[in-house]
Amino acid sequence: MIVLRTAREIELIRKACILSAEALQLAGEAVKPGVTTYEIDQIAYDYIKKHGGEPNFLHLYGFPATACISINDEVIHGIPSKKRVIREGDIVSIDLGAKVDGYNGDNAATFAAGTISAAAKRLCDTTRESLYKGIEQAIAGGRIGDIASAVQRYCEERGYGVVREYTGHGVGAKLHEDPSVPNFGTPGRGVRLLPGMVIAIEPMITAGDKAIRQLSDGWTVKTKDGSLAAHFEHTVAITAQGPQILTQLG
């Protein structure tokens, strides 16, 4: 069931989104060679708790950490570890959120550890830009397929793979709500976008083939061909005045 949020509810979601965005920014600043993914996770946890929120990924469906931290060919759901040390040239995707006063925020970005290759930078830039191409289509009266096809077209025209198995989603009193927001689709198809909807748009893009595989830990998802992957996400409100990015700082 899709819930249309009141203006007051959207402001409450925005509060959770701002804390989520601040925690993501802080975690991203910690991405440096020699740092463990566990240390980054603790930074995010401490910040969210200090500022009156709850890490909404922690224990969700059994996930054991505040943030999903995925490196290089890991697409999503990497588990932070004291043994996982970030190295020069890695690209590190961090996905996290916070719950405040009963409402959720959710966002993700891919960060560079030191100097990264030109190919890695192009992948990250393309994935980030595809997110904004999708957001441009998050217009009342449009369709989910408009968002999905905008992401897909932008990435595939540049030779990248678009992951099919995982999607964006509604955000509100629960972290994951209806509707699903795929990164591939057909314009004019799918759920109608209405004022009051709040959705997470999150392209998960690969430098090679779109095929993925899950590791034996039950969480970490990698590209099958070992190619790099990037992940960016914003929580967005559909309004009569156009899309509002709730997880955008400044």
How is this structure best described in words?
The structure is a single chain. The protein is α+β, with helices and mostly antiparallel strands and 250 residues long. It has a single domain, classed as Creatine Amidinohydrolase (Alpha-Beta Complex). It has 4 helices and 17 strands. It has a 5-stranded antiparallel β-sheet with strand order 10-9-11-16-17. The protein has a 3-stranded antiparallel β-sheet with strand order 1-5-6, covered by helices on one side. The longest helix has 23 residues. The mean pLDDT is 98.
**Main beta-sheet annotation:** 5 strands, antiparallel
> What percentage of the residues does DSSP assign to strands (E)?
15-25%
- Taken from the alpha-carbon principal axes, the silhouette is globular
- Would you tell me the overall average pLDDT? 98
Q: By helix and strand content, what is the structural category?
A: alpha+beta
Counted by DSSP, the helix tally is 4
Read across the widest sheet, the strand sequence of neighbours is 10-9-11-16-17
> How many beta-strand segments?
17
Q: Say which CATH homologous superfamily is assigned.
A: Creatinase/methionine aminopeptidase superfamily
Query: Which spans have pLDDT < 50 for at least 5 consecutive residues?
Result: none
Name the CATH class: Alpha Beta
CATH topological fold name: Creatine Amidinohydrolase
Number of domains: 1
Radius of gyration (Å): 17 Å
Name the helix and strand elements from N-terminus to C-terminus, one letter apiece. HHEEEEEEEHHEEEEEEEEEE
